[in-house]
Design goal:
The protein has a 7-stranded mixed beta sheet with strand order 1-10-7-2-5-3-4, with helices on both faces. The chain has a two-stranded parallel ribbon with strand order 6-11. A two-stranded antiparallel ribbon has the order 8-9. Helix 1 packs across helix 2, helix 1 (20-53) crosses helix 4 and helix 8 packs parallel to helix 10. With 344 residues, it is an alpha/beta fold. The protein is built from 12 helices and 11 strands. It has helices at 20-53, 57-69, 82-85, 88-96, 125-132, 136-141, 161-167, 175-182, 197-201, 218-226, 252-264, 308-333, and strands at 99-103, 113-118, 146-151, 171-172, 189-194, 209-211, 229-236, 243-244, 271-272, 290-294, 341-343.
Length: 344
Amino acid sequence: MANDDMGLLQVQFAPLNTPFIRRMQTLAAAGWIMTFVFGGFFFSVLLFYMMICTRLWWLVFLYILWILIDKNTSKREGRRIEWVRDWTWWRLYRAYFPLSLERTVELPSDRNYLFACYPHGVLCSGLFGNFVTKAPEFEKLFPGLTPTVHTLDGNFSHPVIRDLILSLGLRSSSREAILYNLCSEKKGQVSVLAVGGAAEALKSKPGVYNIILKPRKGFVKCALISGATLVPVFSFGETDLYNQLDNPEGSLLRRVQERLRKIIGIAPVVFLGRGMFQYSFGLVPQRRNVTTVVGKPIELPKVVNPSPEEVEEYHTKFTAALIDLFESNKHRLLSNPNVMLKID
């Protein structure tokens, strides 16, 4: 474990006798962060090079044509490939932290669900490991349910990465895509959404649970329109995986981050983790337990055109359920049981 009181120039290295399996787990976590943060830029540059400097320009042309033809797949049925979701990479990734999944009650498979997840953290590590990859815990706890995680449309514009996340079962977070899944005649469909989004990532700090919920009402409206059951989900320990440069509200860094977020849709978090062979700095997430708890379902009527009052009513019920989920579990899952959930 890294010593928080170290000087800036001091580095705590990992022991040389670290077991091989732990090295592989760290490599899996590092590969995950490098792929999903820098992969889009890397493959864009690679394809540009192939187009301009090699004889494979025709291959790049065909691939770009395929992307244009395939652009709406993320908003419709997606392209889940179970083999990709079950890669050894993801098993090592889940074991690195480790990640775990719990339920409070059984969820029958004769209806569809909207899992509204908090907190976003820096990179939604718990959500990714428990709902994107083929986690055996999910299949055991929720038989008959199929999770579909929704993410920003911009993530489907990155070459190669778009095909990887489509294979993992991700779909667009647009209203169209969420309703397409929730209104499916095939029951047992679960739309998983990090409601706080990129804006919440800028608030993520170790030991702090500051979420964005008050202005987020669209997910409740989608649940009402589709008649889906709304379920609060909370990942305890998610905010402990990364620190970030100090960026209080109103600071120059925060203003620049917010400006860039509105332009590119992704929060430009200057996150601070650990390295492959040392614990003091780097891009790899800290090895901390993350426990994702699926709360009690909230039954909603199906309302084709919900009024603002109806949306507000169920938004209030969801807020109360999320607070109860947090307060009921923080004493056993957080190192500081006195931490408060701040809702903006």
